Ribonuclease H protein (Cardamine amara subsp. amara), 372 residues
Amino acid sequence: MENKHSAKVAWQDICLPKAEGGLGLRDFVTWNKAMNLRLLWLLLVGSNSLWVAWNTEHRLKRTNVWATVVQSNSSWIWKNIMALRPTAKDLTTCELRDGKRASFWYDTWTSHGPLIDYVGTEGPRKLGIPITATVAEAIRTDQWSFPSARTRCQALQNLRLTLISTPIPLPSRGSDCFKWGPPSVRTPCFSTKIAWEHMRPTATKPSWAKAIWFKGHVPKHAFTFWTANLNRLPVRARLVTWGMNISPLCCLCNQQLETRDHLFLHCEYSEQLWDLLLRRLGQPSFIFQEWNTLVSWLTTASNATPAKLKLLVCQAAIYNLWRERNNRLFNQQSISPSALFSLLDRSVKDMLLARRTRKGFSRLLSRWFAHT
């Protein structure tokens, strides 16, 4: 136990949005990279800042952002900014106008993406266009420098057809316009939100998320329910598997193995509390067979009981059952199920009174009193 260094929930899961099963926290490593992408964007579009001017003159020199080679003696921040180029390449495109800023080989200005990736590293030699050339420098005698029509390279044949249908860039059209974002969301300005959404870990949206995070939830109740839903609360059955020399019996009944489902659903103490709560909600008395049954009941619409009232009461019940368990374990204090129900009743009234002016909560207090 002393050598075990683990968290209840993995950090990458915590950093998922609430709708995807996490807590919506931001991983600072990923967030820092998303912010640094803005510096790369400023170099790409040629911002008028002093920082861009200095790096263009002393580091990029006659090359572009994509082709520059990072020197071993470069600064730490410069190395990290340049390391983000593959990510930036996926999010940047160029709307061709005069062709003087767009890189012929590295920028995405055709449907083929960066031509250096599409044609290959032999492309500059086969076409006779330098690796550092801009699109404008690929124009010869007012026409594209086409690949030979007899080339056997399929990529070059496709490029030839693309260039034939692409208008030649002209100074009268203004400067090239770089755009930021995935194909579904293109914007001429840098967006940290887009960068973050592209880089952060993702997961499918679980059906149980709406049973935890809803407008008007009590944070401490929702957090406890979220941890319990993931089965990460330190119940005794889990503590024993970690090597702790303790009794595995339930703190409430002292008869059965203390697992999540037993503690909150099957324990005699919990069943008495649920019986009181269900009657107060106008629901028939029944026993939740497993945790998924409880979650399914919460997420299923019912004309008998408003969904928000069910969620508030259920989360408060789980929180108070866990609190009662801890009071018995650490403080040697206990109360009866009916006494705990009285505390829950007072808590629910306070929550509903505090939220009575919010949308969807105005009539919940009267519904809570309907079955007294």
